[in-house]
Amino acid sequence: MKLGLSGTSFLFSSGDFGVGGNGGQCIDPETKQYNDGSSGIFNPSFPGGCPYITSIGATQIVPGASVAQPEQACETVIFSGGGFSNVFPLPDYQRGAVKNFFANYPPPYGADRYNNSQETRGFPDVSANGANYVVAVNGIFALVYGTSASSPVVGAIVTLINEARLAVGKSSLGFLNNFIYANPGAFNDITQGGNQGCGTPGFQSVPGWDPVTGLGTPNFPKLLAKALALP
Prior knowledge:
Helix content is 22%, strand content 19%. It contains five helices and ten strands; from the N terminus they run αββββαββββααββα.
């Protein structure tokens, strides 16, 4: 948090296993131990669910659609990590967004599946495309997928915004989450797709913030204007 206040932004992947944790593991309801991910209690990832970082989920182009059309939550190869922490309390910066989600789109699961107290950190915060990135390794081209691809994309966007702020004599943004949740209209809302895991469909993308794609994907011109308007 001190680094955030000094101007450093921390972004981290929300995970690639939907409501399953790192490696796709879920929690056995009897033993409370990790299992193979085919059933059990949702297992929020770390540090993707930490309130002191900006958690980045994944989207994809809807099959058969164009890049100009609305995206959906990533459901190709990977599933956008998301859910509610079992450790960290609900931070004030996202309280309104999380309360709106529960009030208008309550998930069809009980406390036997996830922390439904409505008082813990929800993640991700935002998302970016996480499917079909072309990479070349030893001269061979291949496609890769994941929030480890979407997170650097958001990082690059933040870098461009910081560059623009520095050019007019302003500081870098630092910790992003207060700014992000104060400007939900600067993101493209994702309302299609889910993040299956633990033998369930997981959570679903809905209007507003959700534990699949967060507030959505950055709209750079809108986000830049909001950032430049800050002191």
